[in-house]
Amino acid sequence: MGVERVGSPDPAHGPGQGGPERHVISVVVTTYNRPEALRAVLWALRDQRDTAFEVIVADDGSGPDTGEMIGRMGLSLPYRLEHIWQEDRGFRASVVRNRAIVAAGGPYIVFLDGDCVPLPSFVERHRSMAERGHFASGNRILLQEDLTRVVLEERAAVQRWAMRDWVRARLRGGVNRLLPFVRLPDLRLRKLSARRWQGVQSCNLGVWRADLLRVNGFDERYTGWGREDSDLAVRLIRAGVRRKDLRFAVPVLHLWHREFDRSRLTANDELLGRVLESDTTVAPRGIDRHL
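-> structure tokens emitted (291 positions)
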């Protein structure tokens, strides 16, 4: 039996039926009160080589300027854009991501943070690496404060930069590393960490929607910054979904920001510890609350 890919023909949207010939990928972009960074991300998604995708902004309670920006941009973007907003009651990324999953129209969901600028190959590479029975964990390149200011204030399209531009930026201290720009094919080594949950980050993560529903999505007991993505990875692996490493395949450009409030991290670590000691695969407080 061959490996099933996300690019398989979609019988419900074949030629002449008004839809794409490939499955639409749903890109869920999480944001909170950083409209200029979100604008850079949405603008970079306009440059994607693979155009069979939709974007759902998962907004964890931003002020009205974010909604107004999304409304303006939505008039000129070539992809479907939906804004899911929830009341600001503290850091509740798990909740708004679950709501975005419910709204997603595609069978494959790629999570992207609202301060992580994708390269033009982002959707294309996620599609080519997607495989049934696996979730796909990508990595990031950190932009320093000065280069981030250029991106946001001068609206520099860094997603279009050539390698020589990145070498120059690295020599000036603008980025932390260049190695993630190296591209390697879809080799078996990508599955060497198939049962390793450590290091999985929801800022660049592809998961089949059916697998997310099977484990009840993100656990909404995690509030405040940290560990909700680790918890998801643990439960997916226990449910038989294996990790596929997308290093040297799909990096994103992570804009600099001040460190998040980590006052809930100890409590979240304790919750994750209890999950690790259990055999649970289904989030006790998850996506079923929104279905």
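DSSP finds nine helices and ten strands in the chain.
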